[in-house]
Amino acid sequence: MASKRALVILAKGAEEMETVIPTDVMRRAGIKVTIAGLTGKDPVQCSRDVFICPDASLEDARKESPAVKDILVDQENRKGLIAAICAGPTALMAHGIGFGRKVTTHPLAKDKMMKGEHYKYSESRVEKDGNFLTSRGPGTSFEFGLAIVEILMGKEVADQVKAPLILKD
Q1: CA–CA gap between residue 56 and residue 54 (Å, rounded)
Q2: Is pLDDT of 85 > 50?
Q3: Pair type for strands 51-52 and 102-103
Q4: Tell me, what's the pLDDT at 169?
Q5: Packing angle between helix 155-162 and helix 141-153, nearest 10 degrees?
Q6: What is the CA radius of gyration of the chain?
Q7: Which of helix, strand or coil describes residue 138?
Q8: pTM to 2 decimals?
Q9: In the structure, what pLDDT confidence band is assigned to residue 65 with cuts at 50, 70 and 90?
Q10: What average pLDDT does the segment 63-71 reach?
């Protein structure tokens, strides 16, 4: 079985916790995670003035398909997992990805996400609909990361990763 891989696209203004926590959780599970800077390899300034150094530029990470829309369309066509947290699902909407799916977002992004009625909205902390996984915000970052691990690696691995994190049930 080939090892599982994940691509985390990092843009200026991203919420630090929503990038670092799911990435850490996935790496603990043995998933090969690449943090790709949307505009290059330079450190990315996040929402609380923390800078994160990407592993690669988005272009380097996906030479054959450097545009975000192309990556999302390819992933959707392959029925690969597409995961987005906080306001991230609005990028799916902007690119016409996953219309008809049930999604959740940060409460402040709900109105934008529901314009055009392309999605069904959920108030769940983490929402899975087929190969789409969405989550609400910084406080759901661990749940989001563990949900990704469970989908890609199985419940047993997710439980093994969760145990030493000392999370509330």
Answers
A1: 5
A2: yes
A3: unpaired
A4: 83
A5: 140
A6: 15
A7: helix
A8: 0.95
A9: very low
A10: 71
CB atoms within 10 A of CB 114: 15
Q: Which residue has the tokens 């959920």?
A: 122
Instruction: Summarize the confidence of residues 75-102 as an average pLDDT.
Output: 96
Residues catalogued as catalytic: 86, 106
Distance of CA 114 to the CA centre of its chain: 19
Query: CB neighbours (10 Å) of residue 166?
Result: 6
- Residue 45 and residue 17 in contact, taking contact as beta carbons nearer than 8 Å: no
How many CB atoms are closer than 10 A to CB 163?
A: 9
Question: Tokens for 36?
Answer: 């790709």
Measure the CA–CA gap between 35 and 56, rounded to whole angstroms: 7
pLDDT above 70 (res 52): yes
Alpha helices in 78-162 (DSSP H): 89-94, 110-114, 141-153, 155-162
Per-residue confidence (pLDDT) for residue 1, from 0 to 100: 52
SS3 51: strand
Token pair recorded at residue 95: 């690119």
